[in-house]
Structures are given as structure tokens and as C-alpha cells.
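Hello support,

Our group uses your service weekly, and this is the first time we've seen a run hang past the timeout. The protein is Reactive oxygen species modulator 1-like protein. I'm not sure whether the cause is the sequence or the server load. Input pasted verbatim:
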Amino acid sequence: MARDGCLARVTAGVAVGGAVGGAVGAVYGTYEAIRFKVPGLLKIRYIGQTTLGSAAVFGLFLGAGSLIHCGKSY
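Update from on-call engineer: The timeout came from a worker crash unrelated to the input. Re-ran successfully.
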């Protein structure tokens, strides 16, 4: 039973991290695409890469933090 609770916490951590990372990545990617004057449709590709990369990193670290925290009982 405790194992299911831990898995649910880690899954929720990855989901929240992915959502926050995606939002931050989209804003940052848009800013960078405008700042560096990325031409035409390459802006969409650049913003997408930044969004997915940021979502993956945030999700990974928040999931890992949830896993580490899951083993502790207070």
C-alpha cells in the first residue's frame, strides 16, 4: 500500500514538473526566438524544442525530488 502511495507521489511530481517546465519553456522559447530574430516557421520549431526540453528537465528533477522525499517519514 505504501508503495502505491509513493508511485502516485512520483507520478504527480513528474506531471506537475512537466506542466511548469512546459509553461516556462514556452515563455522563454518565445522570448529567445524574438530576441535572436529566428526566421519564419523556424520560430515554431525553436519554441517547441525549448518547451519540450524544459518540460523534460523540470519533470525529471521534480519526480526525483518526490522519490527522495517519499522514503522519509516525519
